[in-house]
Amino acid sequence: MTRLTTLALCAGALLMAIPANAAEFEVKMLNKGPDNQAMTFDPPFLKVQVGDTVKFVPTDKGHDAESIPGMVPDGATPFKGKLSQEISVTFDKPGLYGYRCVPHFGMGMVGLVEVGGSTANLDAAKQAKMPPLATKRMTALLDQAVKSTTANAGAGNASR
User: What one-character DSSP code corresponds to residue 84?
Assistant: First the structure.
């Protein structure tokens, strides 16, 4: 075998192995969540790894899931689902991804996915324009992401 062929085979094997390690998560789109909050995603905050997939399921009809402009990492592809239809999104860049249900955005139906333990685009995410209730809910989710990232960093330092 030539060196180039061997390299190509190794690269192919590596690429095939990556999806096998990827996880799939589910987020439900609900009229009322387990905490009795109206118009919500359940869970509203997820931590996933690069290559993982999140399936947004319209458990209650009349919802969609779409990324919020300004709330995806640089170079990441925004996503946009259709009303009352499931959408699966594979996250390939680390960072924060804010998303919304377009019909219920004004009612605060937003969620957040943290990919790869990164909050690198936090400042940009905080600048995204949203209605007041959506801003209130997203601020709490961004705070949760910062706290979880800080806690993980502290735990990593403690084990050294």
Answer: T
Boundaries of domain holding 46: 22-158
CB of 125 closer than 8 Å to CB of 160:
no
pLDDT tens-place string over residues 94-153: 999 999 999 999 999 999 999 999 999 999 999 999 999 999 999 999 999 999 877 776
CATH number at 100 reads: 2.60.40.420
The reply to whether 16 falls in a domain is: no
d(CA 106, CA 135): 9
Strand partners, 27: 56
* Measured CA distances, 19 to 6, 22, 24, 102, 111 (Å): 21, 5, 10, 30, 25
- Split into its structural domains, the chain has a count of 1
Tokens, residue 62: 């009349």
The distance from CA 113 to its chain's CA centroid, rounded to whole angstroms, is 3
pTM: 0.83
pLDDT tens track for 60-97: 999 999 999 999 999 999 999 999 999 999 999 999 99
Question: Would residue 17 count as lying in a domain?
Answer: no
